[in-house]
TrEMBL record:
Gene3D superfamilies: 3.30.1490.70, DNA ligase/mRNA capping enzyme, Nucleic acid-binding proteins
Source lineage: Bacteria, Bacillati, Actinomycetota, Actinomycetes, Mycobacteriales
GO molecular function (one): ATP binding
Keywords assigned: Ligase, Plasmid
Name under which the protein is recorded: DNA ligase (ATP)
Length: 303
């Protein structure tokens, strides 16, 4: 049995940081330099590492007023190349560093996890905009999940204490367990399926009632269906098809272009990671709700 260390899973944007250059740089997983979007982190890296060459791995996170990571707040900073001082202040970001790949030109990727964590600690990275979150040994997964739930975190990651760092790979030595929430959604139509989903639904178009009672769009769900469910749902929705959108405010054009609308009568259960106001993040269909009517369905977090 592998011994594992546990870390918190942060709801943010993964970033590789390189220092020893002028200035330091932040890189996305697909190799794009997005340093300009997060100047406060670049400045912090300059302050704590000065002329030292390192390659770090971590997550860029924006905390809400309650101290909980907020992806919706972070979204305000993404793709903004020159954030204003007000935007930086309103959606301040922090770099949570959980691994080190290189120090002073020497690769650390072949070192076991615990040795890399020790090397990371020895870099003394603590700064208001840079954090090295803790890891825990001799604790079980259910306990760590409950701690993450209590603190409203995204989940946990279990890492083998002997594991090496494997760039660009999904290693079985790192097991991620996200915490997810459930909500009901009113089925307001569907996008027809293609490829393996041809003849069925590609995704369901979901709605819920806002504070004023208006029916508003909360996102599409396209995963979690069997092939049979995709066909059966299409048949059910065609039976109650309507020519126009039932929403008070039209959904994004990318959705309406292919949409086939239905009367907002059927309710389904959806598992998701976060509701940002713009839509559900990482939703998955869990089943139909015959015990709920459309009138019972409010925006996520209101019920």
């Amino acid at each position: 049995m592998q011994l594992r260390a546990f870390e918190s899973k942060w709801d943010g944007v993964r970033a590789i940081a390189t220092t020893g250059t002028k200035p330091p740089a932040l890189w996305s997983r697909n190799g794009n330099n997005f340093s300009a979007s997060f100047p406060e982190i670049v400045d912090a890296l300059s302050a704590v590492l000065d002329h030292r060459e390192t390659v770090l791995d971590g997550e860029i996170v924006s905390l809400g007023p309650d101290g909980v990571p907020s992806f919706s707040r972070l979204q305000r900073r993404m793709h903004v190349l020159k954030p204003t001082a007000q935007l930086r202040n309103d959606a301040l970001t922090t770099y949570y560093v959980f691994d080190v790949l290189d120090i002073d030109g020497t690769s650390t990727t072949d070192l076991p996890y615990l040795e890399r964590r020790e090397a990371l600690a020895n870099l003394s990275l603590e700064h208001p905009r840079i954090k090295v979150p803790p890891h825990w040994l001799n604790v079980d997964g259910p306990t760590m999940l409950e701690v993450a739930r209590t603190h409203h975190l995204e989940g946990i990651v279990a890492k083998s204490i002997t594991s090496t760092y494997q760039p660009g790979k999904r290693s079985p030595s790192w097991l991620k367990t996200p915490l997810r929430a459930n909500t009901e959604g009113i089925i307001c139509g569907f996008v027809p399926g293609s490829g393996n989903a041809a003849g069925g639904i590609g995704s369901l178009i979901l709605g819920a009632h806002d504070d004023s009672g208006s029916l508003v769009y909360i996102g599409n769900v396209g995963t979690g269906f069997s092939s049979r469910q995709r066909r059966e749902l299409r048949e059910q929705l065609i039976d109650i098809e309507r020519p126009t959108s039932p929403f008070a405010i039209a959904p994004p054009r990318a959705i309406t272009r292919e949409a086939r609308w239905s009367e907002p009568l059927l309710v389904c259960d959806v598992e998701y990671r976060e509701y940002t106001g713009g839509g559900l993040r990482h939703p998955a269909f869990k089943g139909m709700r015959i015990d709920k009517t459309a009138d019972d369905v409010d925006l996520p977090g209101r019920h």
